[in-house]
């Protein structure tokens, strides 16, 4: 009997979840489109667009973003080699 009483609310909640329409709020952002400078640099282009959206005075371009990432990757590789020697 107790189990039956628990099943009714669970089934009712499941039906409500599946039948009640859900609408997501949307907002269009004023992000200026920037083409990628090289092939496979879409991520760098997106990074530049986001950076300029949040800081319109930003002068960091895709080349600077890629250069910074490469420096970080080199440092990571060196540190991994150093710790692997121990």
Verbal overview:
By secondary structure, the chain is mainly α. The chain contains 3 helices and no strands. The chain is flat, with a radius of gyration of 25 Å. The model has no long low-confidence stretch (mean pLDDT 85).
How do you describe this structure in short?
The protein is mainly α. It has three helices and no strands.
SSE layout and pairing:
Layout: H1 2-19, H2 42-54, H3 62-85
Helix pairs in contact: 2-3
Query: What is the radius of gyration?
Result: 25 Å
Uncertain stretches of 5 or more adjacent residues: none
Strands, count: 0
The helix content, as a percent range, equals 55-70%
Coarse morphology: flat
Using brief descriptors, characterize the structure shown:
single chain, 86 residues, mainly alpha, 3 helices, flat
């Amino acid at each position: 009997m107790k189990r039956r009483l628990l099943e009714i609310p669970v089934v009712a909640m499941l039906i409500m979840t599946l039948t009640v329409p859900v609408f997501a709020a949307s907002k269009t952002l004023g992000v200026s489109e920037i083409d990628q400078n090289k092939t496979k640099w879409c991520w760098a282009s997106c990074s530049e667009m986001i950076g300029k959206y949040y800081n319109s005075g930003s002068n960091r371009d895709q080349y600077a973003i890629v250069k910074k990432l490469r420096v970080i990757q080199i440092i990571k590789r060196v540190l991994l080699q150093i710790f692997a020697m121990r």
